[in-house]
Amino acid sequence: MAEVKVAVVTAGGSGMGAACARRLAADGYAVAILSSSGKGEALAAELGGLGVTGSNQKAEDIAKFVDQVMARYGRIDVLVNSAGHGPRDTITAITDEQWHQGLDVYLMNVIRSVRLVTPIMVAQKSGAIVNISTAWAFEPAAMFPTSAVFRAGLAAYTKIFADTYAADNVRMNNVLPGWIDSLPQTDERRAGVPMGRYGTSAEIAATVAFLASEGAGYITGQNLKVDGGLMRSV
C-alpha cells in the first residue's frame, strides 16, 4: 500500500487557504492546517487531519506546527503558504511599523516555514511548495502597497529557491490570484476583468493542487497568474 502523502497549509482556516486544504484532502492528501483563528483546527478535524492554532508570523508557532506534523505523519510532501492581509494606506503614509508588519504578513511567513520544511523535503528527495501571492506582484496597484512590494520580493525569493533546490527535486511556485470571491465584490472591479467575473477560491485551490501534483513535476520558479485575464499584457 502506497504511503499517504502529506500537505500542510499555513493560514488555512478560511478563504483561499481553507479551499486549498479542502481540495488537497479531496485529492487524497493527509492535511495539516495552521491557523491563528482556531478555524484551522475545526477544518482539519472535518477533513480527518491535524489542526494547530498559531500564527504564521511567529517562528515558534511554525516550528511547533512542523514538529507536530512530523510527529504524526513523518513526512511533508506539499507546503502551501497562504496569508492574511497587511496594512493599506497611501504609499508615503505607511509607517515603519506597518512596513515591518507587511513584511511579516507577505514574505517572512514564507521564509520561516520554508526554512523548516526544506530539509525534510530534501531528505525525501521530493517536495512541492506553493505560495499564494497576488496578481499585482509585477504591476503594483496603489490600493495594495505592502502586498505588491513584498510579493515582488517573494517572486525573487522563489526564483533563487528554485535554482538552489531543483536538483533535489524540491520545487517552488507562486500562484497570483486576481479578484477572488473571498474579497469584497464591486461592479467596478468586475468590469475590469476580461472574463467579467470574480474568480473562486475553488479555482485557486485547483491551481495549487495542480502545481503540487506530479503533473507539474517539471515546473519550478514560476509565477502563475489566475486572474481572469486581468494582467494578460504584463
TrEMBL record:
Pfam families (alphabetical): adh_short_C2
SUPFAM superfamilies on file: NAD(P)-binding Rossmann-fold domains
InterPro entries: NAD(P)-bd_dom_sf, SDR, SDR_fam
Gene3D superfamilies referenced in this protein's UniProt entry, alphabetically: NAD(P)-binding Rossmann-like Domain
CDD domains for this protein: BKR_like_SDR_like (cd05344)
Database matches in PANTHER family: 3-OXOACYL-(ACYL-CARRIER-PROTEIN) REDUCTASE
Family recorded in the similarity comment: Belongs to the short-chain dehydrogenases/reductases (SDR) family.
Protein's recorded name: SDR family oxidoreductase
Source organism of this protein record: Xanthobacter aminoxidans
Lineage: Bacteria, Pseudomonadati, Pseudomonadota, Alphaproteobacteria, Hyphomicrobiales
